[in-house]
Here is the input.
Amino acid sequence: MFKALMIRKSEGPGATQTVAIEEIDEALLPEGDVLVEVSHSTLNFKDGLAITGRSPVVRRFPMVPGIDFAGTVRESTHPRWKAGDEVLLNGFGVGESHWGGLAECARVKGDWLVRVPPAIGARRAMAIGTAGYTAMLCVMALQQHGVAPGSGEVLVTGAKGGVGSVAIAVLARLGYRVTASTGKVAEEGGYLRGLGAANVIDRAELSSPGKPLQKERWAGVVDAVGSHTLANACAQTAYRGAVAACGLAQGMDFPSSVAPFILRGVTLYGIDSVMAPMPLRERAWAMLAEHLPLDKLDAMTEVVGLGDAVAAAHRLMEGAVRGRVVVDVRR
Here is the structure.
């Protein structure tokens, strides 16, 4: 038996969702060739949507949420993994269609696992989580495009969230001049500058409808917001600059025009972390181990127990969480 956060949903008209910690028989775990004793998970935006029921993230019920986890292999028939290996997982539908990481045990496919970088460890790996791993994929896209520290300012939207916080810390460590966009400049300005932001602007500068082509401001952009914010970021990106889009906190719409793309040669990169190929994942985690300042990571991290995960998910969806939330499933 093991403890797990379980989402259940009633059937028929007026169906309701319940979320509670339950004792689960290991025999009920889904199919997979690796059994992992989970030590830590985390809360991402998608986990918040699933736990609060604000969006139909969960594809089947009952479901253990948690799109990330880290822990130790207990049993394995996969050729790459053996008992005692420290592993982590991000995405692949875990926590949506396959039982996830907010539990003491998980059974998954070995092809989904990445080795925990020794320099980071399990707890910090979950402080990074999908949010931080996605941020690194965004930074890598800008680098691949040729956006260098000397190219000009890089804008990070949704700056106080998990993606934004890690992106700022990594970009600053790499020598980029970062401008952070947040809705709470007075409250969060010190926090964001502490992560390495050189400048902090109010998200209101970007969140309303704007002209299709605006003054060139950014050599690159990491956007976790979408909607008008993404449209304005593209409209303000400099000639042959790049925008890495990975989120939809403001909305899924993209009220833009082709002007930035055909008149300035701006490139818009869509960043998918869920099904990213393994070599890309491994490179992202290696770069996080090398370039993410661990003191900055610790400063942006809150640790809660499994019993506090539901309350933390509600705080996350209310915009009351700064940085990252790690869930220690053993407490």
Remarks:
- The chain has two domains: 2-116+300-328, 131-270.
- DSSP finds nine helices and 15 strands in the chain.
- The domain at 2-116+300-328 is CATH 3.90.180.10 (Quinone Oxidoreductase; Chain A, domain 1).
